[in-house]
Structures are given as structure tokens and as C-alpha cells.
Design a protein that fits this description.
By secondary structure, the chain is α+β, with helices and mostly antiparallel strands. Helices cover 26% and strands 22% of the residues.
Length: 542
Amino acid sequence: MKFTLSWLKDHLDTDASLDAICERLTLIGLEVESVDDKKGFAPFVIAKVLTAEKHPQADKLQVLSVDTGAGAPVQVVCGAPNARAGLVGAFAAPGTYVPGIDVTLGIGNIRGVESRGMMCSEKELEISDAHDGIIDLPADAPVGTSFAKYYGIDDPVIEINLTPNRPDCTSIYGIARDLAASGMGTLKTRPAPTFKVEGETQVKVVLDFAGEDKALCPGFALRLVRGVKNSPSPAWMQKRLRAIGLRPINALVDVTNYLTFDQGRPLHVFDAAKVKGNLTVRRAKDGETVLALDTREYKLNPANVVIADENGVESIGGIMGGEHSGCDENTVDVLIESALWNPLNIARTGREHGIISDARYRFERGVDPEYMVPGIERATELVLELCGGTPAKLDVVGYEGYTPKAVSFPFAEVKRLTGLDIPKDESVSILTRLGFKVEGSGDTVTAYVPSWRPDVDGKADLVEEVMRIHGINEIKPQALPRLSEVNTKILTTLQIRSRLAKRALAARGMLEAVTWSFIPAEHAALFGGGFARTQARKPDRG
């Protein structure tokens, strides 16, 4: 799970340093795997082209005189078509590593003319894929200052190793909530979106399930937004998506990707003009196919859950949308979907078809059911802000609400399981800050689990929550008690003889191979083994 420091601070009011935040993340169980502090961009400065003359030996090259703000102008040979006198851009001096081309610059000699550095394109600084010209900044950009700071690409990127039992922290908001509960600042809350709706969402949703199958899609929300203008998303959103390894596509798609990471709420957008009739959520028919957004065609079966219309399958539910109904620059009316899916079914379907997506990653761990509707409201707000349009009334089917789990919590369990002597009041305060509702008094209370914590089932889980927020580093190491008795034999006779035999054989130069117990027959056949070979060697008893 990756996020930038500024993105985290959108949700967390804190003055803590990057190092302090990273240390606290690891202490509360969100282990920091890596930090890119963006110091690699420090050598790039804003520079101004003073003159641009034609290269004497090459028609497509120019010899530039560049003011870097550090004394006398430097000479740079440049082949960019937009290079001109007066241009303000990003300059890299000799000795600078340029990440986009994986090159460390030196003093070059290009067609007999010395070049001391280069003016950089967006691709060379990994800002975008644009490589048809050098960066062209406003004329008032401060020459000689840090380009990374001016352009906003100095934002550190943090990556945490998220364990499967923490679906609440597959969102940046969830990570901020944990940090705030640990005392690292205050959690920021935004007011609920407010906008005027007009008309009904004409496309209806049918959940075609009965009995136990209803758990395959416990809820589905859909909204039509008319008259949108789908253009590139704003620079601030593109920078954040690129920083965590996502490629910006267009505003509608970028909104869904942004909210997947920001709020942990995967969504999907359909081009309403490409949807025929109503949407039906059902099991796939055996042999049905769908061309997904990753340009691969998948052959489905009844174990898979799909969203379909009269044209056929439009999306593999909770995993990946279909290419046919995807949004592009011609999209005018859009259907925004926010749904709930069965985690086990999502995991099986994703594994069966080899699909790895950000939506699957979250749904198979369990998303917050109570955020299904607020999530689509937040998405609508962003779509209106970036693309305009008129939203219709929200259509919600299937969802029956969340009933919190009640877990009995004896305070004595904290001491028994962790050795920590934590006051009752502090335990209650920690659970409350994490979103649990605690009721009762005395030595045992009842904690009601918030909707975003499907991993909490029993009292040991509550002890873990109290321990990690109080500080696992507070547990003091203790020596094991010394035993007065002489140890009795531990290994069996067979184990002793097996180990002696292995050591004797190894001492004579033999090697031991430990192989997998079960492998596919076709793999075993490659090495001369497997069921097929065994069958071939059976004697004929006819």
C-alpha cells in the first residue's frame, strides 16, 4: 500500500516529521517497507534559456545559453523542438542522475560542441510520458530554485506492508485514523457531500440471486449523471496517482482510482450510452466471455459473479470492468456503481482467472459496508467538480444495513496475553479512538465492532488493538524460568535414528533433496514421473 505524505496529511492534522510518522506506523503494526524521500530530484533547478542558436553541424539541434541562477550562463546542446530564447524549464547539471532515461549526466561533446547539462522533458523526470519537448514553465517561475518543490514532485512516498487482516488500512483515510488513535495528530473529517439531484436513475439493477446466493452481492448502489465532459483529470490528482504507480487515464476513471486508495471504496463507471436495458447481477453462464479493461478476454463459469445487460456481461463483479462499456472522451452520460461483494467469491474468481486488481485486493479482504452509499456520494461530488453534469437520484438495492458484532472484553486478558499492565480507562480510550463503542462497567465490558473492522471477532483481537496502540515496544523482554529438573528425552527413537542416518550420509558426500509433495501431473511428466508414467508401467493383466 503506497501513499504520499501530503495525501496522508489531507486526512491527518499533524506536525510530525516523516521519520516520526514512519516509526509510528511500524509500531502500530503497519510496517513501513520503503520510503522514497524524493531527494533524487534535489539537483534539478529552474533555469531560463537566454539565447538559442542553430547548431553549426546539425539542423535539428540548437546551442542554448542557459541561466541556472548560479553564476555565469552554461552552454547546453538541445534537440527539443520547443527550445527557444526566453523559455523557463528544468535544468540538470553534469553529475545529475536523470531517472526517466536512467543516465548520469557528464560533460558531453555533441557534434563538436560542448554541452554542460540538459534541459529536461516531463518523461525524463518521470512526471508523464510526454517527450516531444522540454518542460515549459511560466515566465515568472523563480530561476535557480528547486524545480521539484516548485512543481510539487518532492512529496515523499511511503509504502507499508499491509497484512491481510487489516482491510481498514487499504485506504489512506484508514491509515490516518489509526495514526490519530495512536496520538499522532488529529483525524480530519470532511462534511458529507451536498448536491441537487434531478430525476430518476432510469437504468435499474436486479440482483438475480436466491437463498444463500444473496450473500454474493449484499448491496448495490447506482447513479446516473447526465451531461458530463470527460477530460484529463487535474494535475494534482494525476501527480498523486503517478506517485503510487497508477497511470492517469481520464477524469471519470481517475476519480474511481483515487477513491479506491483515498477511501478504500472501489467503484466502477459505465458509459450509460453503451449499456442496453437494465443491469442484472448474477452468476455467469458457463462459457460466457468478457473483454476486460486489461484487454484480455476471460471465459467465465457459474462460480463467477457478473454485472450484465442485454448485450451480455459488462463487468466481472468486484474485480474488473468490461472494455465495451468503459468511459472515454466521448462519454456524455455515466453510471456510477458502488457495490458489496462476497470476499471468498472474489478471491476464488480472481485466483481462477489470474486477475490482480486494486478492487479485488480490497473486496477479498472486506470493505466497509456502511461506506457503500457515502462512497458513491463522494464519487458523485468529485465527478461534478471535475466533469460537470447533473446527477439523478441514487438507486440502492439489496443492502439491509450493518449490525455490529458484540465482543465481551475482560480487562484481565490484556495482562494475561501481553504482560502489559494497562489501566482500564486507557483500554477503553484506545478502543473508542479506534471506532469501537464500549458499554458496561466493572472488570468486563462489551465492545461493538465498527463496520470497517471485519477482522475483529473475539477478545484476543481486542487485546491486540489495545496492545499495538499502547505500544508493543512497551513489552519488556523476560528470560524463561530456569527448570531444575533434568530434561527427559524429547525425540522418538525413529527421529533419533533418522537424524543419525542423515548425518552419516551427508558426511559421505551425499545430498538430500526435499521436493513438493503434490505437483500437477504434467509438471511431473517433464521429469519422467507422475501419474501418466506410473500408468504406463502397469503390467498387463488382461
